TrEMBL record:
<feature type="binding site">
    <location>
        <position position="222"/>
    </location>
    <ligand>
        <name>tRNA</name>
    </ligand>
</feature>
<feature type="binding site">
    <location>
        <position position="168"/>
    </location>
    <ligand>
        <name>cob(II)alamin</name>
    </ligand>
</feature>
<keyword id="KW-0963">Cytoplasm</keyword>
<dbReference type="GO" id="GO:0052693">
    <property type="term" value="F:epoxyqueuosine reductase activity"/>
</dbReference>
<feature type="binding site">
    <location>
        <position position="154"/>
    </location>
    <ligand>
        <name>cob(II)alamin</name>
    </ligand>
</feature>
<keyword id="KW-0479">Metal-binding</keyword>
<feature type="binding site">
    <location>
        <begin position="240"/>
        <end position="241"/>
    </location>
    <ligand>
        <name>cob(II)alamin</name>
    </ligand>
</feature>
<keyword id="KW-0408">Iron</keyword>
<feature type="active site" description="Proton donor">
    <location>
        <position position="133"/>
    </location>
</feature>
<feature type="binding site">
    <location>
        <position position="247"/>
    </location>
    <ligand>
        <name>[4Fe-4S] cluster 1</name>
    </ligand>
</feature>
<dbReference type="InterPro" id="IPR013542">
    <property type="entry name" value="QueG_DUF1730"/>
</dbReference>
<keyword id="KW-0846">Cobalamin</keyword>
<dbReference type="GO" id="GO:0031419">
    <property type="term" value="F:cobalamin binding"/>
</dbReference>
<keyword id="KW-0004">4Fe-4S</keyword>
<comment type="similarity">
    <text>Belongs to the QueG family.</text>
</comment>
<dbReference type="GO" id="GO:0046872">
    <property type="term" value="F:metal ion binding"/>
</dbReference>
<dbReference type="InterPro" id="IPR017900">
    <property type="entry name" value="4Fe4S_Fe_S_CS"/>
</dbReference>
Length: 309
């Protein structure tokens, strides 16, 4: 049995590399005891703002064996989205780098499905479900547990060799696989992310008040943006990369090889005045396959109007 555990781990990691994942780590599926109290405190402090969905499925978030019955292992993976081309945002509205290209949910899920299909052909049938930011899973906790990175002071998963500009994904399965160990923390005394956040959303080391975060205000929040954000949003109309842009580990970020994550042509040419003139039809055309469609035309317009006050 132990031979199979090691063999499965080796095969899965080779396959992950073949399918373009940067990192792959494995954990034993079970209750995330060390995350229960912090998650409870975070919710009690209302740091989730109006993200009511965070209050649901508390048990599933902490235990993947409830989410995926019969699961024994969590395979954590990361996929680079760092752009090759930097979009000139000086004096312009800004969009988070993860939204430059097409919607990662569908792209990565399709890659995961193909990867699982090949794994089944190689090692035999097994039960699993694949996820990428699409279910009540504490993705960063599993990434930390599997050793693919550590949770930084900005609460992002950071990897020494690649920084933090990557999507996280999981294959939760019933295979018994040799697990990996967590890596060490390499934030040290650095507080660049905390110091740089214009809305003071990083309220403590590794604790984010989501209701103060620019990404929350521009994407998750459905009502009017509170006045407390006024003059603090630095022209971000969708998402925010500030705490990642200042992180010293992101100097090692290399451009993604996935063409579908490359910048939408409009993002490279549109100016503030162009964005202000955008219509529902243009929005639908520009962001048809983009994560930006999540905020809807009315949401993007609200964000731009707020930034222009």
């Amino acid at each position: 049995m132990s031979q199979n555990r090691k063999k499965y781990s080796d095969i899965i990691k080779l396959k992950a590399k073949k399918f373009g994942f940067q990192s792959c780590g494995i954990s034993k599926a079970g209750f995330l005891e060390e995350d229960a109290k912090p998650l409870e405190d975070w919710l009690q402090n209302n740091f989730h703002g109006e993200m009511q969905y965070m209050e649901k499925n508390f048990d599933k978030r902490l235990d993947p064996t409830i989410l995926v019955e019969g699961s024994r292992s969590v395979i954590s993976l990361s996929y680079n989205y760092y752009p090759e081309e930097k979009i000139d945002s000086l004096g312009n509205f800004k969009i988070s780098k993860y939204a430059y290209g097409q919607d990662y949910h569908e792209i990565i899920k399709e890659i995961l499905r193909e990867m699982v299909s090949e794994l089944r052909a190689e090692i035999g049938d097994f039960d699993c479900r694949v996820f990428t930011d699409s279910a009540p899973i504490l993705e960063r906790s599993w990434g930390r547990k599997s050793g693919i990175g550590w949770v930084g002071k900005n609460a992002n998963l950071i990897t020494k060799q690649q920084g933090s500009f990557y999507f996280l994904a999981e294959i939760i399965c019933d295979l018994d696989i040799e697990e990996d160990s967590p890596t060490s923390d390499h934030c040290g005394t650095c507080t660049k992310c905390i110091d740089a956040c214009p809305t003071d959303a990083i309220v403590a080391d590794r604790i984010i008040d989501g209701s103060k975060c620019i990404s929350y205000a521009t994407i998750e929040l459905k009502n009017e943006i509170p006045d407390s954000f006024k003059n603090n949003m630095e022209d971000w109309m969708f998402g925010c990369d500030i705490c990642q842009d200042v992180c010293p580990w992101n100097r090692f970020s290399a451009p993604t090889l996935e063409e579908k994550f490359r910048p939408n042509q409009f993002l490279k040419t549109y100016t503030k005045s162009d964005w202000k003139e955008i219509t529902q039809e243009l929005f639908s055309e520009i962001f048809r396959k983009s994560p930006v469609k999540r905020t809807k035309f009315a949401g993007l317009k609200r964000n731009m109007d707020f930034l222009s006050q």
